[in-house]
Amino acid sequence: MQQSTQKKREVLPRKRVAEKMADVLSGIRVPDLPYPAQKLSPDAVSNWQPLLLSCWSEQRDEPVTHVIRSVSLTWSVRQINSAYVADRIMGVFLKTSGLHPELARRIARLRFFFAWRMNLEGAGALNDTLIQWLDSLQDCRGWSASGGRSSRALLDQLDSLVIAVSGSFESGDIEPVLEFCRQWRIDAEKREQQNDRLRERLLATEEGASRQRRAEQTARALVGRALQNRELPRPVVDFIFDHWFGLLKQIVWEEGTEGENWRHASKLLEWLVWIGDPGLSDRDRNRLYTVGEQIGDRIVDVWNRVQKKPLEEKALEGVQAVMVARLRGETPDLVPALPSGNRFSWNPSWLTFTIPPEEEVAQVKGKWFVEGEGAAEQRRFFFALLPDTSEVLWTNGAGVKLGLLPWARFVDARDSGTLRSLPPLKPFGEVLTETITSLSIVLDRQKVQRQEAAREAKARAESIRREKEEAEQRRLAEETARREEIARRKEMVEAQRLADEEAEQERLFREKEAAARELVDGIKLGGWIVEEADAKGQDPVRLKLAVRINASRKLVFVDRLGLNRREFLVDELVKEIVAGRIRVLGTSAEFDDTLSRVVGRIRVGRN
């Protein structure tokens, strides 16, 4: 696991990204994608430009690979890989860019444009101007779908991107998109100059308002605490709200709550309440005289130091009348010190106000925070902590105020998870580099697997070839043995046939010889034979049996004239008759029939 993790962290240099992307587009293979079964001719590859333009014009969020699988067209390997790489890059961008989901989704629709250009130009599709523009989108990290003017302005600009990309699809040139990127950069620089002025004015305005709010709330807290659940004479109440309340605010505005003026003013407020409330001052009449003698002069003294002008004489008339009545032992008419119905709100925490430690503020100042989830999330920039009120000044990062949040509530929201720090945004160029690095690792692994598969296939083919050769050799050996067996059997059958034929011929010869011997034995004196001529053109010779010598088994034949004597031994004559060179007249027909029968049996035996 550690080794694989380390390899993933070793990101390729930007210069090698183009080279690796070309390898990935041509070499990677992704399961379940509709790759062609064989290499296609250019004419066989479908044109996907109209399809991608349609998807872009409709601003579809569907991955390119889903689109090309949804239609029954023929795609090349490069088209399929371009679609996959574009989906992969924009998929990672959606997850890691850190932009608002709605904004990231609109940018991710460029997958259709990237797929089209990568199929045409490879790594050249990701022009430096285009990557720089995508990187600059980090300036929009604070964008939220608030429906405000700044929110709509950015969406209007992205609508212009739709027009620019559509024009690039139609013209086949990337220049409209590059011109959009350059114009975006020019507009961004102008906005940044304006934003600097907006931020300066906003900070000055909010610091002044914060200081005024601190003065208001602190004075309210002091007066509210002093008058809470009290009933005082109307002149005292009127003086406190008409004059002394404003004085307290002025002291906090100018000096804060650490100076002498604030301490004296607070003490005088307590004296006014003490004098006006009989339940308090009647317990110590001596002190009532002392306070009554001093309070007027002290009020005037503090007033003159703070307001830099004398207090109106009429302002203290009511208070002085109450003090005189109290000194006489009279009990004046009392009214509730605070207005009814919570018309005077106050918070005692302002009297114990503290500024959070600077190191804690430094950790979060100038950072982005997110509230909400998904498309409903709202992003806020911690622009400043107003020192007078310890309130977080939220902006949209461009000098537009989004609200204020007390530091204590900010800490609680962070601790509860309601408010989250925005993770560091990842520039598009980094997304591109890491994605191509990851895919190149996959490609290298696939190459190794292919080489291993090729070696295994070669070894398997060699094994199959050897098995086939061995099987063929066995088959040939078996065929040879079979043929030899067949030939041997044929030879045996032929030998048996020849033997049978020879035996049959021998038997027939013996029968023929017996028949011929019987003919010879049956020739009577005067019987005739015909001897066939030896040479062509000569006539057969007819001979007549003249003498039979039984002792020597000799037969003497003569011609018609008694001349040309020929002698045959019986065995010799039998052989000549059997050979067909001599025929015995008179019984020759019977002998011929015998010979015909014998010859017929010989032929049947052969078949």
Automatic annotation (TrEMBL):
The keyword Coiled coil applies. It comes from the Bacteria. The keyword Coiled coil applies. Keywords: Coiled coil. Residues 181-208, 447-518 form a coiled coil. This is DUF1631 family protein. It comes from Marinobacter azerbaijanicus. The lineage of its organism: Bacteria, Pseudomonadati, Pseudomonadota, Gammaproteobacteria, Pseudomonadales.
